[in-house]
Amino acid sequence: LSDNSTCRLAHVDPWKYAAAIDLSPSGRVFLPGFVRKPPLTPKRAVVFMHGAAGNANHYFCSGLAAIAAAGADATTVVVAPWFGKEYVAASDWLHSDGLVGGSAFWDPGVWSIGGDANRRRRQGASGAHRVAMTSFGALDILAAQLAQEYPG
Questions:
Q1: Cβ–Cβ under 8 Å, residues 54 and 83
Q2: Rounded to the nearest 5 degrees, what angle is found at the Cα of 62, between the Cα atoms of 32 and 47?
Q3: Is residue 96 classed exposed, middle or buried when 0-12, 13-18 and 19+ CB atoms within 10 A define those classes?
Q4: Could you give the count of Cα atoms lying within 13 Å of 66 in the half-sphere of its Cβ?
Q5: How high is the pLDDT of residue 48?
Q6: What pLDDT was estimated at residue 69?
Q7: Do strands 102-103 and 29-36 pair parallel, antiparallel, or not at all (unpaired)?
Q8: Are 77 and 38 in contact (CB under 8 A)?
């Protein structure tokens, strides 16, 4: 996430769109990502997935540019989740003190095959981290949240 060259070319600060996609009923586990809500009533949502490099910010900025080039930026929700390999505290990801919770994270290469984010944390863990959270499950939750927030 350190390379923001694509974002600079598009004159976009991806951190302005940092979002914590809630993955647990307690709100303590989230999927980091970037979400841009359109100025008008959304007609669609497009989710841009990063590859092995884990550069969700690059895909987010490229996605914004593609949606704008298609003339659909005023009515399209743009989402780029980050399946990172390290834990991030909610307060760090959202640059806001006092927030509780932390990110799901995956061993390298595991997220792309639907792997369990909590495998490393399960021993001795409590609460939300005792539950399996696969990357495919996280995408299912994201899709359900988009459908609930933007029905139709």
A1: yes
A2: 50
A3: exposed
A4: 13
A5: 97
A6: 94
A7: parallel
A8: yes
* Total Cβ atoms within 10 A of residue 12: 20
pLDDT of residue 130: 57
Nearest in space to 106 (alpha carbons), one of 89, 85, 132 = 85
- CA–CA distance, 98 with 14 (Å, rounded to integer): 22
For the chain, what's the residue count? 152
Please identify which residue in the block is written with the tokens 């899709």: 143
Burial 76-92 (b: 16+ CB within 10 A, else e): bbbbbbbbbeeebebee
The span from the CA of 52 to the CA of 68, in Å, is 26
Which amino acid appears at position 110 of this protein?
Answer: V
HSE-CB at 12 with a 13 A cutoff on CA atoms is 22
Mean pLDDT by 10 residues, the chain (152 residues): 73 92 87 96 96 92 94 97 92 92 87 82 52 88 95 78
| Cα–Cα distances in angstroms (integers) from residue 72 to residues 19, 44, 66, 67, 69, in the given order | 21, 9, 9, 5, 8
Q: Measured between alpha carbons, how far apart are the two ends of the chain, in Å? A: 33
Burial of 152: CB neighbours in 10 Å, binned 0-12, 13-18, 19+: exposed
